[in-house]
Specification:
This protein has 112 residues and is mainly β. Helices cover 5% and strands 47% of the residues. It has one domain (2-103): Beta Barrel (Elongation Factor Tu (Ef-tu), domain 3).
């Protein structure tokens, strides 16, 4: 399906909790849980578009999908819930999609 994706954005944020006491002049924080989010963008083409077969069930199913990103030989694999399958038709006729996903299984995102 990677040939159907034209660009993507992903993040691996950590939550933080402020724990600053009244005796401090600067912030103190603890790192909390890790997370992962991704938005995949692509061009719709139902003649050859494998991504449409994957994402068309987003509104009607609740399944996690394995999402693997490979950058310069480094791999980041996460189980994701995709939350929407919006299609946009531009005034030039292009039909595109942007599918957001979030971490589903509580596994800390780790590059390998």
């Amino acid at each position: 399906m990677k040939n159907d994706v034209t660009n993507l954005e992903f993040a691996t944020p950590r939550a933080v909790q402020d724990v600053t006491g009244i005796d401090k002049s600067a912030m103190e924080r603890l790192l909390l849980l890790a997370d992962f989010s991704v938005t995949l963008n692509g061009v719709f083409n139902d003649a050859t578009d494998q991504s449409h077969d994957v994402f068309k069930t987003v509104p009607s199913t609740s399944v996690a999908r394995t999402t693997t990103l490979v950058v310069s030989g480094q791999t980041l694999t996460n189980e994701c819930l995709y939350t929407d399958y919006p299609l946009t038709r531009a005034d030039d006729g292009a039909l595109t999609w942007a599918v957001p996903g979030v971490l589903s299984d509580g596994t800390v995102p780790s590059w390998s």
